[in-house]
Amino acid sequence: MFEKQGLRLFMDGMGPGYAFEINSLVSPLTIFIGDAAAEAIKDAESALEKATATRGLLAVQYNEADLYGYPDENEDALQAFTAGRDGFLPWSYGLEITRLVTAAYMAAESRKTIDLTDPNVQKEIETYMSLIQRGRGA
Asked: Is the pTM of the predicted complex or chain greater than 0.70?
């Protein structure tokens, strides 16, 4: 189950004769848990739900892995454990994700597409500090 105050995915589109909208905080099922009901359950997991219940509804996502796109990572870990290998990804994997996120900030802040194969761009990514990192972003 996905708890509502987490990640939100939203997109919509319109064209001639069609329209669509997806919002990960809108679920086929919503639940409201009042304070009295939440206080009756005294475990750590309920505390998070109680915090949300005092603010509104819980959106239940029955398939969080597919919604947020990490079933491949789960499958990779399963195959590694089944084969008797370490299921953790290497440091280089995390480093590459960090580079991609940094590049995304760099492209957004410069308002232009950047070429990740350009050696000059690759060098700039190594030392780039986004506005968020510098405490000036929104």
From this structure: no
